[in-house]
Structures are given as structure tokens and as C-alpha cells.
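sorry for the late reply, my laptop died twice this morning and i had to redo everyting from scratch. anyway the thing you sent over, i finally got around to it. pasting the sequence first so we're on the same page, its 347 residues, then the predicted structure underneath. double check i copied it right bc i was rushing
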Amino acid sequence: MITIKEIADMLGLSTTTVSNVIHGKTKEVSEATVERVRQVLKEYDYVPNINARNLASNQSKIIGVAILNSRKGYVNYLKDAFISELLGSIERELKEKGYYLMMCFSTDTRELIQRVSAWNADGLILFGIVAEDYQKIQKQFKKPQVYIDSYPGDFYFNGVNIGLEDRRGGYLAGRYLLSHGHRRIGFVSDNFKGGDYERYCGFAEAMSEAGVTVRDSDFIEVEPDEEALAACYESLYQRLHEFTAFFCASDFYALCLMNFLTDRDVKVPEDISIVGFDDNVYSRMARPAITTIHQDATQKGVLAVEQLMKMIESGEQSRDQVVLPVELVERDTVGQIPVTELTPPRI
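ok and here's the structure:
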């Protein structure tokens, strides 16, 4: 690869002038000189030495984006359209600001921090962190941090969290199913922590207000692995007579459940009703389209990057909780069950 010095010698310019053009510092360089340098850069497909530039500025221009898997077994998070949209939004925002995204999926907090530290990342965006993980991360990583959908528990929060009205979303889903006459409703999730726990609490609150008892067996824990998930749904299928509806903690599980039941000639919403959470692209493409709780994954990514850039530029760690709104999106997966008495929805 051609070097800056070779370009400078070729054009009879100083290396400083060539370097300034490469890095966009052209205020004191004539347009003719800028054009000459750019022609050579184009001709030789010049690629800047990022490591050298970063070493000089003491910045890596790398942002770590980490998801800690506290669930059982391997989880391919990118299969979930919500996660993919979120990461795509973060990557686009970082690229516009001249940064690079490095993803880290791990089951171990120590490994996660070691990898991010090895990259010399300028900052860290973390998704779905719960209390015990948060405490470890705070002790080991001292650079700017932004959390998304994280619940640090009772620990002193040091950072920015881009959160959601998870509990209200669960409440809205519960009230909507109640308004359609459903009383035997299962809650489907792969964990009982963080955001999913908050969604369950909102759902349980709606049931309680309507005088409906939520049994322990109404919480249906599934495994994220494809084969294990099918086995979980097979077990649920054997209990189908116990329920008239399911509220799934994500559209991913809602769509998987709907397809599983459809393959067994169970009709949605005629035989069973389903509500999801996220309003991802597949919930809109599914047939029937899935009634769900809407959240804006793209906005979460944009806000996360904006908050992180503020901290990197100021050199100060912010402390803030940003809570984004939710709304129920009514589509085609909930049927009406006649009832004689119904508590009016409170939204």
C-alpha cells in the first residue's frame, strides 16, 4: 500500500499537507492541491492507517456493544428482529460519527469486559443487563457506558439507561385481552428478570384489578434454542385446553407460537388468541398480523449513541434514566369471548 510520504514525494508536497487532505482538514489547502491529492488517493485505493491515527489521538474510535446472555444455552440474538433493528440503528449512528461497532455476546461478565478492554473501546453500550451483572461491570469498566433495557436493581446507578414502559406495556396487553373476554391467559417468556419481569408484573396487575387470579402455572417459561423451544411449545400444546389466550414477552415468541399452533390446525384467533411485544417487522408481515405492544427500537439505538457521544466528548459520566413510551397496536390475533360482566379497561 502506498504511504503518505510516497504520495507527498510524488506530488512535491509536504506529508502534513497530504495528511490534512486525507483527514478532511482542508481549510488552509488550495482546492487545486486537494484535488491532486484526492486523485492519487483514488488511483491507488489508499486506505488510512486507522491504528496509527488512533494511537496518535489516544482513541480507538471503537464502541463496544455487548449483550450478556443470562439464559440457558446458546442464544442467537440476531434471529430476533427487535435486536437486529436495534443494532442496525446503533451501527448507522456510530458510522455517521466516525466510530466503529464491535459486538460482544457472552455468558460471562468477566469475558465481556476483557474483550471490550482488549479493543481499547472508547465506550460501551450494554443491552439487557440485570443487577448482578451491573455491579461487576461498574467495578471493571471505567469508560462511558450507556445501558439499554437494563435493570440495575438497588445499586447506585452510574450511567445512562434507555428504558421502556415495560410494566405499562404488560398492563395494556392484559387489559386488552380482558376487554375481549379472556380470563385464562398464559404469559410466555424465556426468563423472569428485567424487562420481561416488568411486563409480567404489568400483566398480573391488570388481572388482579379484574379479579382474575394468576396461577404460577400461567407463567410459561420457554427455551430460546430452536429445538428446545419446539419441545416447550409441544408441552404447552398439551395444556392448550387451560387457556383462551397467550401474552408473549416478545413478538419472536408470539410468531413462533402462532406458527407452531397453526401447524397443528389450531386457528388464531378463532381457537386461541395471542398478543406479542415489540411490534417488529415480522409481527406486521405475519398472517394473521399480530396484535402487539409497540416500541421504537430504532429510537433506542439513536438515543444510546447520542448519550454516549456526549459523555465521550465531555469526559464526564452522565447519570440519567430515559423511559420511552409504549402503545398497543391492534391487529388480527385476538378474538372476542362473550362475558356477562367486564371491568372497563383503564389505560
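The first helix runs from residue 4 to 11.
thats about all i looked at so far, will dig more tmrw
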